[in-house]
Amino acid sequence: MHVAVLGAGPAGLLFSLLAQRRRPDWRIEVHEQNPAGATFGFGVVFSQGALAFLERDAPDLHAELTARMESWPMQRIVHRGVAVDVDGNGFSAIGRLQLILFLQERCRDAGVQMQFGQRLESPPQADFVVGADGLNSVVRQGRGFEPQVEWLSNKFVWYGTAQRFDCLTLTFRENQHGVFVAHHYRYSRGMSTFIVECDAATWQRAGLDRMTDAESRAYCEGVFAPDLGGQALVSNKSVWRQFLLLQNRRWSAGNAVLIGDALRSMHFSIGSGTRLAFEDAIALDRAFGEAGEDVPRALAAFERERRPVVEKLYAAASASSYWYESFPERMRRFDALGLAYDYMTRSGRMSAERLRAIAPRFMAQVDTGGPSA
Ligand SMILES: Cc1cc2nc3c(=O)[nH]c(=O)nc-3n(C[C@H](O)[C@H](O)[C@H](O)COP(=O)(O)OP(=O)(O)OC[C@H]3O[C@@H](n4cnc5c(N)ncnc54)[C@H](O)[C@@H]3O)c2cc1C
Description:
The chain has helices spanning 10-22, 52-57, 59-66, 96-110, 200-205, 213-223, 225-228, 273-291, 295-325, 327-333, 336-344, 352-358, 360-369, and strands at residues 2-6, 27-31, 43-47, 70-79, 82-95, 113-115, 128-131, 147-151, 155-161, 168-175, 178-186, 192-198, 233-234, 244-248, 252-253, 256-258. The model has no long low-confidence stretch (mean pLDDT 94). Helix 1 packs parallel to helix 4 (96-110), helix 1 runs parallel beside helix 8 (273-291) and helix 8 packs antiparallel against helix 9 (295-325). It contains 13 helices and 16 strands.
């Protein structure tokens, strides 16, 4: 069977690797517009347990990946200069480029054919097409997938910095133009992700809509000077964007299927886009494991298994993204502890009871001090 995969991100590479290992007789071709050693962004973070599925389905990959990750047992919220730690809420992180290079190497070893540096405007002829080509997927275009999109209004930009942070931290800061939040964590010994987000009105008042990349970085370095310890922000194709919430009514059309961000986006505040891309890849490979070369049967099995899980998580991620859309008002309303509690319960899936079991030290503070309004 000839399989054409568009996109060598986490979804496309992991699917190709697993499928090629399972079926060495298949011709699997991956087409990627970027050169082999380039990608956007910096590190990505996984919540505790988010990689358990990889441990179950590909224990060798799980062991090799986790050995390359930075991990920590808590999350921190900084507001009005006060830091609140939420225990029991652990995360691990890895550089996006490091992750992709690792998967490319394994794909090469397995015999996957990879072509880099060429953008395709439509998928090539093949027995089966995998659209793993991200948010702006060309596989999705004009095939009746029925995408549904919603743009969030906040602005965000994905920077890196050599400043090392103890753990995944949300830092809220205010200046004369408005309010900002940074999502930051280290993903290697010497580098951290630093995503800056603000509401559209703040962004315009600050003049960020008219700034060059260097001016924008200098401005954000000023806002977060107390947190950056004199380290600069660095760019990697970093532009201010609005987040796109995307879903598709149909997951497959003819012999083509969407996986990863091409299928649906997951707001970065729940740290799950890469995890979901991995889970899609594993589920699709497993579906072919059961269906052999029967493409319609495999696609039906894939959707049957994945859709309920994805829809549940999508609802949580959307609730989380709406919380960010109202963060300026929440910053004014709550002190650090109150904001941390409000944040931890934002998706509607975390009750006080559950938090008491997971984060007893944090909840002891909340119960004695009370989330103050
Ligand atoms: C600011 C930000 C922070 C994030 N942080 C996290 C995080 O902490 N944890 C997490 O799990 N996720 C995070 N994500 C989400 C994560 O980056 C995505 O969910 C994940 O990359 C999806 O993987 P993918 O393989 O589906 O798509 P992508 O990683 O987008 O890969 C798609 C690939 O397809 C290629 N491509 C696209 N079109 C074509 C074409 N026409 N021809 C050839 N090649 C093409 C692209 O170059 C790209 O390499 C974050 C996202 C953002 C924006």
